[in-house]
Write a structure and sequence with these properties.
It is a single chain. This protein is mainly alpha-helical. Helix content is about 75%, strand content about 0%. The protein is globular and about 60 Å long. The N and C termini lie far apart (about 40 Å).
Length: about 300
């Protein structure tokens, strides 16, 4: 990795981890759940426009041509906008309403586990081996430990609210796992920034539309802190971080970049403790270590292929 890659890697990890803290902060300061989710992605997509407009390979191309999708990608992009954004993030925001951001970061680090599970059944070249099975058992064990050991040291909410948040956030992780496999099977040919622009705008608009039916009327209204939180997650947690991510994934590959979720729990827990006054129990730390160990096995262990002698 070059010095630039290292800086980008650290910045993406920080932005994605602190996005959870910013989301929690925004919801604590007047934003309703689904409206906040929808605005985050709709605005994030809008903030991608300058990056698309000034892409080097688009020099001299008419403005609207810069946003053209490759043939056959239109339907795929619409489907992925719901699979990658509308569905999982709806569950994420509901779950985060009941959970500390640090605990949410721990659960979110399990996404690669569910990706591997779906990949085994739907991708012919990503089947289980005994190391993958061990990694999945470790990760699932960490999730189970986190669920059964929940107590008031995790949150000021009662047990019922914690479990509600845990279930919704886990469904979010499962949804992301399925969406990752679906994205690989669909094989979008268009530029990643352009396809992400359409996915975030369509996915965000769908959640905003949903918010008119699901959001309960609130006596509170978003204050200045909530607006700053929204701008942070839209600009840095979505537009800037996605541009950095896709520029790095082309150079370093998906495996190295998929290690970013391993950094999120520690950062989210630390920032949540100092910024939001959240507490974390030793059992939650143990759960995080189990999940991260399972994911690390899945990402880094590659069994040596047996070489056949010629002759």
């Amino acid at each position: 990795m070059t010095r630039k890659d290292i800086i980008y890697y650290v910045l993406i990890s920080l932005m994605w981890a602190t996005t959870l803290n910013a989301l929690k902060l925004g919801m604590n300061h007047g934003f309703s759940i689904f409206l906040f989710a929808g605005l985050r992605f709709f605005l994030g997509g809008i903030f991608l426009i300058p990056f698309i407009f000034f892409m080097k390979k688009n020099n001299g191309v008419p403005f609207f041509e810069k946003f053209r999708l490759e043939k056959g990608d239109g339907i795929k992009v619409v489907v992925l906008s719901f699979l990658m954004f509308s569905v999982p993030y709806s569950f994420l925001y509901v779950g985060l309403a009941y959970l500390p951001s640090g605990i949410a970061g721990i659960i979110g680090s399990s996404i690669p586990l569910f990706t591997m599970l779906f990949a085994h059944f739907f991708l012919h070249d990503e089947k289980f081996n005994w190391i993958k099975i061990l990694g999945i058992f470790l990760g699932m064990g960490g999730l189970a430990l986190l669920a059964v050991s929940a107590n008031r040291s995790f949150s000021s909410d009662d047990w019922g609210k914690f479990i509600t948040g845990f279930i919704f956030y886990t469904i979010c992780a499962v949804s992301f796992g399925a969406a990752n496999v679906a994205a690989k099977k669909m094989k979008i040919k268009s530029d990643s920034k352009v396809s992400t622009f359409y996915q975030t705008v369509i996915g965000g608009a769908a959640i905003i539309f949903l918010s008119f039916f699901l959001n309960k009327k609130n006596s509170a209204y978003p204050d200045f802190t909530a607006i700053l939180s929204l701008l942070y997650v839209a600009i840095f947690g979505t537009a800037v971080s996605f541009v950095m991510y896709y520029s790095m994934i082309n150079r370093l590959g998906a495996t190295k970049m998929s290690t970013i979720p391993l950094n999120i729990p520690l950062i989210a827990v630390t920032v949540g403790y100092f910024l939001l006054g959240e507490t974390i129990s030793p059992i939650a730390i143990l759960s995080a270590l189990l999940i991260i160990s399972g994911v690390a096995l899945l990402l880094f262990y590659h069994p040596k292929k047996r070489l056949l002698s010629q002759g």
